[in-house]
């Protein structure tokens, strides 16, 4: 996470109008993200918090860091604190169901963002990026960068998160159309930059002739770039990312990353809170469906300068 990311987000929060007295009496909205050390999840939490406060709620942001036990404890705290709604980025598609049910049984509406749980009609809404669409965009841009033949490797996200498989399958949908492109290795790096660096080192040692790396998120891609730079291989091996993080956008501008796929996290984090507000006041979110997909945007050198603030593209 860059200092600029934090400054922009804190400035955006500080610019919201302060509400006095009873204007803050709408209740507490608890926001639970994965790990705010990642700029994507930091943005998710800060935007949701700012929107909740704009609407007259108090809000706090907590992080489970992918651990379902921590997530369950945070849900217990939200219940104890009499939260009027919970905005949750689930730790695990299956493992988070019990925690969500616990909140719902306590009468607290839960809206999930970024990742899903594998049960319908429990969360009031599930707002996620259109990962399949974004992965197809990225894979096509990746082919344009590396060509239509050669060996490549893939960095895979955290397996308990459905987004990891959805993106990988989306890549495969496109790459399978190019029979002379051969995937020779795939490693799980759990959305993490350090793991991306370490896994890239080992894959490069085992597969010195690869032409490209396709990655399930920017943090893993940035780790791979660091390893390739260290090995003097970045010019020959092209890397693609996914998220649209500030560091990735800068890497695109520098020519180190071929593209990133912008997830509109600022949009759906804001929208989740607004739907929670609707539900609190009317018993309905106002959306047509529980699961809502938000299309991703391909970021290349051609439009990287249009990123006006973290994860927001000026149209």
TrEMBL record:
CDD domains: PBP1_TmRBP-like. Residues 1-25 form the signal peptide. Its main location: other. One of its GO terms (molecular function) is carbohydrate binding. It is found in: Cell envelope. Residues 29-283 form the Periplasmic binding protein domain. It comes from the Bacteria. InterPro entries: Peripla_BP_I (IPR028082), SBP_2_dom (IPR025997). Keywords: Signal. Gene3D superfamilies: 3.40.50.2300. SUPFAM superfamilies: Periplasmic binding protein-like I. GO terms for cellular component: cell envelope. Belongs to the bacterial solute-binding protein 2 family. This is D-ribose ABC transporter substrate-binding protein.
């Amino acid at each position: 996470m860059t200092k600029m990311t934090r400054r922009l987000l804190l400035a955006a929060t500080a610019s919201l109008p302060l509400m006095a007295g009873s204007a803050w009496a709408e209740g507490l909205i608890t926001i639970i993200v994965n790990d705010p050390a990642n700029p994507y999840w930091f943005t998710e939490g800060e935007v949701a918090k700012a929107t909740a406060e704009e609407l007259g709620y108090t809000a706090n942001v907590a992080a489970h860091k992918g651990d379902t036990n921590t997530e369950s404890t945070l849900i217990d705290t939200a219940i104890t604190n009499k939260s009027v709604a919970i905005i949750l980025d689930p730790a695990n598609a299956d493992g988070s169901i019990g925690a969500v049910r616990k909140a719902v049984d306590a009468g607290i509406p839960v809206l999930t963002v970024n990742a899903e749980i594998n049960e319908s009609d429990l969360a009031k809404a599930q707002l996620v990026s259109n990962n399949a669409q974004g992965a197809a965009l990225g894979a096509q841009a990746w082919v344009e960068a590396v060509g239509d033949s050669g060996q490549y490797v893939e960095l895979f996200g955290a397996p308990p998160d459905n987004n990891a498989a959805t993106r990988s399958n989306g890549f495969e949908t496109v790459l399978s159309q190019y029979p002379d492109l051969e995937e020779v290795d795939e490693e799980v790096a759990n959305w993490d930059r350090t793991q991306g660096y370490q896994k890239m080192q080992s894959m490069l040692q085992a597969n010195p002739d690869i032409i490209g790396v396709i990655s399930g998120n920017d943090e893993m891609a940035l780790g791979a770039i660091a390893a390739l730079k260290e090995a003097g291989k970045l010019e020959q091996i092209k890397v693609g990312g996914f998220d649209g993080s500030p560091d990735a956008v800068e890497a695109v501008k520098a020519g180190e990353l071929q593209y990133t796929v912008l997830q509109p996290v600022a949009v759906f984090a804001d929208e989740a809170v607004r739907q929670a507000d609707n539900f609190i006041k009317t018993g309905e979110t106002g959306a047509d469906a529980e699961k809502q997909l938000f299309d991703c945007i391909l970021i290349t050198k051609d439009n990287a300068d249009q990123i006006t603030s973290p994860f927001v593209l000026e149209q």
